[in-house]
Each structure stands twice: as C-alpha cells, then as structure tokens.
Design goal:
With 309 residues, the chain is an alpha/beta fold. The chain starts with 10 loop residues before the first helix and ends with a strand.
C-alpha cells in the first residue's frame, strides 16, 4: 500500500493510523487493530484504512473480524486496488478469483518500480531472467522478441544482443519508465494480459504473428488462470516461434492455486494441458528455485515451447 493511498484526509485519523503502524511493526497486532478502529470511526469511508485493519486483525488471529474489514474495503473500493478479494479467498470467505484485480497488479508494480531491481536481484536472489535466457539461447538469434511483463528490463538485458528487434509490454507505467531508461527496447507499450487481443495493447499499431520469441519471465504468477494469455501468445507468434515463460510450481496441487504471498502457482499438468490445447509443442522445461522469500526457497518451472511451422 503506497503512502499516498494511506491517508484518510483527517489529521487525527492519520495520526492514530501512524501509531497503529508502529504497533504493527512491533508485532502488537491486536493493539494496532484497536487504534485502526478508532481511526476509522473518524474516517469510515477510508478504504485503505479498512484494508490495514483487516491485515492487523488477520495477524492477530481474528479471522472473522478480518473478513468483515476486507469486505468493507471491497465495498468502498470496487476496483479492488488493495486486492481485498484475494485476502477474502485466502481466508475462505470467497472463491479464489481466476485472476487478480488488474488495478491491484498495476498499483503494486507502480509502487515497486524504483526499488524493483535491487529488491529482486540483491535481496531475493531472483534468477529467472538468466535461467530462462539459458533455455532460449541455443535457439538464437531472433528477428523479433516480445517481452511480456517486461518490468524494468531484466530479461530484456539478457536477450538484447540475440534479437534484432525487442519489444516490451507491462501493465505498470512506472515499470515501463524504468525500462526506457535502460535503452534496451525498440518499442515499449502498456498492456493488460487479462484482456482480449484487441483491448490488450499488444497489437496497437503492431502486426500479429510478428515474434519468433515471446517471453514471460516471472509474470504468470500474477495472472491466475492463463486462459486469456495463451491466445494472446499464439496471436503474437510467427510459425516456428518460441514461447519461453516461468511459473511458480504448484507441486501436487492441480490447476492453479492462490498462495498467501498473493501470487498464483501453477501445476505442470495445467501448463502442459494449455500447451496442447493451443497447439504449442514442449521443447524443454526445468524445475528450479526461482527466488527466495523470507528465507524460504520458492520453486518454479521454466518452460520453452514452440508453435509448429
């Protein structure tokens, strides 16, 4: 939750919320929840405050009252920029959404952009771009690459010298601005991968079937169901074109699952089924650790597939 969202417009409510934040940082979650309740008595229409109250109640073990706070958040913020719907699903109060709210993902990465490279590479030992590039490079060089969810350009930097044209698309304008500073891409554009092709932004002034490589490095875990993504990919791919991507490994779970991290994990069978449905041949796959999270290794699967000629 960014700082500008976390203001009620009431000075006293903000002060109480700030004290609540300090208590939360000290893991005094029940006391933090009480202060947030007082703040919300002064600013009852404050969606961000209700979401923070839900988090404090949840961490204090007050599940039912946390659910009530998240429901109020969602009522006040129907676009669901705080992803209260995901919190409700994790608490068993709502079915798992097939996809997260687009406004949540956009806001998350807009806020994350300035510290993204440092946080992932230096603190979380993020390794997907290099590992995915290693799967792809034996098939280089490429005429045109479309990097979906390009972020700040970590995979773009790996592939730049192996492709004549490099396009990057992301839902976050701030991420695209950071990528532009690196001067890696021939074209950058904003795109929402949950939308149909004509609304996605991927084909605004750009031809279909133009890419002999489409990449999605550490993107699909923010999408849940991939039923919208694969048609976009097949429309981007030229005959014999490659699709290289990563997922968090759902292990024995089937299909896709929402994890407490608010990211989705996908099973190997689910991905293989989608490849088959959309006429893509599996070229290679690799089960590997893709990052660390709170000292825990996050396991993923890298896939390389090909559209038949």
């Amino acid at each position: 939750m960014s700082a500008n969202q976390f203001s009620s417009g009431d000075v006293i409510a903000d002060r109480r919320a700030d004290y609540a934040r300090m208590l939360g940082e000290s893991e005094e979650f029940a006391a933090a929840a009480e202060l947030m309740e007082q703040a919300l008595e002064l600013a009852p229409g404050w969606a961000a405050g209700w979401f923070r109250l839900g988090e404090y109640r949840e961490k204090a073990g007050l599940g039912e009252t946390a659910i009530a706070a998240y429901r109020e958040t969602l009522r006040l913020d129907p676009q669901d920029v705080f992803a209260a719907s995901l919190k409700l699903a994790l608490l068993g109060a709502k079915d798992v959404p097939e996809q997260p709210p687009s406004r949540y993902v956009e806001s998350l990465f807009d806020d994350y952009a300035d510290r993204f490279d440092t946080a992932l590479v230096e603190k979380l030992d993020y390794s997907v771009p290099g590992k995915l590039a290693a799967l792809v490079m034996p098939h280089a060089p490429f005429v045109a690459t479309v990097d979906l969810g390009c972020g700040t350009g970590l995979f773009g930097a790996e592939i730049r010298d192996a492709t004549q044209r490099l396009e990057g698309f992301d839902i976050s304008a701030n991420m695209l601005a950071r990528a532009a500073r690196k001067q890696l891409y021939d074209h950058l554009g904003q795109s929402d991968l949950t939308l149909p092709a004509r609304q996605s932004g991927l084909f605004d002034g750009c031809e279909p079937h133009r890419a002999d490589l489409v990449s999605a490095a550490d993107v699909l875990m923010y999408l849940g169901s991939l039923e919208t993504v694969f048609p976009l990919v097949t429309k981007l791919l030229a005959p014999r074109g490659l699709f290289a991507f990563s997922v968090e490994d759902a292990g024995e779970d089937r299909g896709f699952v929402l994890r407490p991290s608010m990211r989705y994990a996908h099973s190997e069978d689910y991905i293989l089924g989608l490849l088959d449905t959309h006429g893509l041949d599996l070229v290679a796959s690799d089960k590997t650790v893709i990052r660390m999270d709170g000292g825990t290794a996050i396991h993923g699967i890298l896939f390389l597939s090909r559209r038949p000629g």
